[in-house]
Amino acid sequence: MKAAAASGQLLSVGEAVPAVEPAVAGLDVGALFAEHGGFMLRVVERLAGKGPHVDDLVQDVFVEAFRNSRRYDAQRGAA
């Protein structure tokens, strides 16, 4: 399976994802996951059932949050 890297290049499973400085995007993904990861795992398990796919789905959520973090505007209010 392949995934698109931030540069647009495809990565193979097991290939390291290029490091991206969290401050560049204005989002500390590690802190975000530490605070909300457990909750997201429980929500996804309820929606999609238990199984190995749950971790992948939760990872996808955090990857999308990171990719779209530059669009976040605190002036627009809380989610």
Instruction: Tell me the Rg in angstroms.
Output: 14 Å
Percent of residues in helices = 40-55%
Helical segment count: 3
> Strand count, sense and closure of the main sheet?
2 strands, antiparallel
Strand content: 5-15%
**How far is the first residue's CA from the last residue's CA?**
33 Å
Could you tell me the number of beta strands? 2
Tell me, rounded to a whole number, the average pLDDT. Answer: 73
Q: Outline, from the CA principal axes?
A: elongated
Low-confidence stretches: 1-8
As laid out across the biggest beta sheet, the strand order is 1-2
Q: What is the structural class?
A: mainly alpha
The helix/strand order is EEHHH
Give an overview of the whole structure.
With 79 residues, the chain is mainly α. Helix content is 49%, strand content 8%. The chain is built from three helices and two strands. The chain has helices at 22-25, 29-48, 53-67, and strands at residues 2-4, 10-12. The protein has a two-stranded antiparallel ribbon with strand order 1-2. The longest helix is centred in the middle third of the chain and has 20 residues, at 29-48. The radius of gyration is 14 Å and the shape is elongated. It starts with a strand and ends in a 12-residue tail after the last helix. 1% of the residues are buried. The model is unreliable at 1-8 (pLDDT under 50).
Attribute tags:
elongated, 2 strands, single chain, 49% helix, mainly alpha, 79 residues, 3 helices, two-stranded antiparallel sheet
Q: In summary, what is this structure?
A:
By secondary structure, this protein is mostly helical.
